[in-house]
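Meet our chain:
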Amino acid sequence: MTLYSAYSAQKAPATTAVRWWLLSMAALIAIMVLVGGATRLTESGLSITEWKPVTGALPPLNNEQWSEAFDGYKAIPQYRELNAGMTLAQFKSIFWWEWSHRLLGRMIGVVYLLPFLWFMWRGSLGGELKRRLWVIFALGGLQGAVGWWMVASGLSQRVEVSQYRLATHLVLALLIYSAIVWTLRRLVVRPPAVATARLKATSVILLVLTFVQLYLGALVAGLRAGKVYNTWPDIDGGFIPTTARLFFEQPWWRNLFDNTLTVQFEHRMVAYTLFVLAILHAVDAIRARADGTVVRGALGLAAVVTLQATLGILTLLNQAPIDLALTHQAVAIAVLTFAVLQAERLVARRQPNALAQDRPMPIGQPG
């Protein structure tokens, strides 16, 4: 056994522990996104009107504290214009969704940081991996600030949060999730995949389009655009709405983010593009006789995109009921996961244990 082989065998348990930790983090973030979706669908996101990163971990513990929290909600436009007359019991039902969402965020921060510090202290992380994980941690801190920035947009002049900020919050969460999944895959030593340049390019395009679609989906949710134009395949009387209806706001570009018809139309068109490109990617992988892992990844991505498109249509036709809408969001995370895995499989350069640990210098050579 060589020195490097002996070192790798010695470090294998630590690498396995790191992989399980990252897998747990990815699962927690996926759950966090779904709880956030439920918070949005139940109109619960503005029920807590203060940002207390530490003391806010405790919910109201007595009637006086509940009354104080409810009074804070009564002071914002959403209560006055949409929920006037709400009882304390009804307020509690929305409060718990938002509190659970924030508690999950705090839990994710702790579950990420403490094992990270432990692994660094034990010397289980190589230099490149540590840098990646510090970046992910910084993004997590930014996500907490973005979450409050989003909530603050609905506390004074609006009855809901800004769809721009909602979309930013969701995409940042899924960017963190994707970074963890990508890093997790890089910890597995595998030979480089044999594939054409076209397959590699389409895998990257599919990943980029998936993020674009997720951003548009968040705009649809923020504008409640899934509750209007509930026909398919036509929308507003045709497959392609009239230009006058798509671009009536000025300046024209605001329609891309504020016009419910335009935003839903964009979401549909990108969905069609993703579906067609995923099918073509799978066919190309089979015809090019790519590696089995590449073919299976392409087929899996095409299958989950097809399922997502079907769910999207059903959600639209039924005016976005909470069960279908959350299922649609869950499968969106699955689509992103398949897209990340396929892109990483095809474009990431392979170096044995490149991220796991720093390779030791052979005995007798200078460090």
